[in-house]
Amino acid sequence: MNFENKLISGLFVKRYKRFFIDVRLKNKVITAHCPNPGSMMGLLNKNSKVWITESLNLKRKLKYTLQIIKDRKSKVGVNTHITNKIVFEALQKNLIKDFKKGIKIINEKRFGLNTRFDFYLEDKKKKIFLEVKNVTLKRKNQVAEFPDSITSRGTKHLNELINAVKKGYDSYLLFVIQREDCNKFKIAKDIDIDYSKTLIKAVKNKVKILCYDCKFSSKGIKLNNKIKFHINE
Fold first, then answer.
1. Which pLDDT tens digit goes with each residue over 25-45?
2. pTM recorded for the entire structure
3. Which of 9, 98, 141, 201 is 20 to 30 A off residue 105, Cα-Cα?
4. Is residue 25 one of the residues assigned to a domain?
5. Do 27 and 141 fall within a single domain?
6. Do 84 and 73 share a structural domain?
7. Domain assignment of residue 56, yes or no
8. Boundary of a domain, candidates 22, 50, 77
9. Which residues in the chain show pLDDT less than 50?
C-alpha cells in the first residue's frame, strides 16, 4: 500500500482534541490530522521522529496527515484509515495464505441490521467474514498487544463474528501489527478485560485469529510476516 504523497519527516510536539497533532518541521510547527482513535499508548513522546504526508485536496481543513511515529528504533504505522488498504492489497496478492488465490473480495459487507465487517470473502466452498484491527502497542520485549484502550466496538465485532459462525459463515479476525519489532502477539487483558474474555469466547466458537506484522519503505507499508498469537485465559 503506497502513500498518496511522499513522506515528510518532523518531530512530535503534542496531541490534543484526539485527532490533532502538532509537528515541528524545521523552523515551524504545523497541525496535522491524527487518524487514530486509540490512546496511542507509549508513542506520544515529545521530540519523537514522525512522518506525515501532505494532501493535494484543497477542501481539507488540515492538509497534513500523520502516518508513522518512531518508537525507539522502530517505525510504527498509526494511520488506522489505511489498515484495510494494506489488507486489501495483501488479499489481492495472496500474501495471506489462509485464503485461496483468486478468492472473491468485497469491502465493507453488511451482516445483520447493525454490523458491517471489513471484508467478505468467497470461493466455491467457503463464505467468509473478515474483520481487521490495527495494532500499535508494544510494552515489553517483542510482544505486540491489543487494544491500547477500552474498545466496546471491538467487543461488539467479536460477538457478531460469533453470530456469523452460527449462521454458517467462516469468521476471521486479523490483527495488523504496524510495526517491525514484534514476534509475538497477545491481548492486553489488563487494559480491557471484557474484550479479552469475549475473544476467548470467540476462539472457542471457532472464530479464527490471524496476526501479521508489516514492512515499511519510503513509499508505503505492506503486510509481512505471520506472527504467533498467545491467548491468555
1. 998 999 999 999 999 999 999
2. 0.95
3. 201
4. yes
5. no
6. no
7. yes
8. 77
9. none
> Residue 233: its pLDDT value, please?
61
Task: Tell me the three-class secondary structure of the chain, residue by residue.
Answer: CECCCCCEEEEEEEEECCCEEEEEECCEEEEEECCCCCCCCCCCCCCCEEEEEECCCCCCCCCEEEEEEEECCEEEECCHHHHHHHHHHHHHCCCCCCCCCCCEEEEEEEECCCEEEEEEEECCCCEEEEEEEEECEEEECCEEEECCCCCHHHHHHHHHHHHHHHCCCEEEEEEEECCCCCCEEEECCCCCHHHHHHHHHHHHCCCEEEEEEEEECCCEEEEEEECEEECCC
Q: Indicate the number of domains in the chain.
A: 2
Look at residues 32, 58, 77 and tell me which one is the last residue of a structural domain. 77
- CA 188/CA 51 separation, integer angstroms: 27
Query: Which among 202, 151, 210 has a CA at the least distance from the CA of 177?
Result: 210
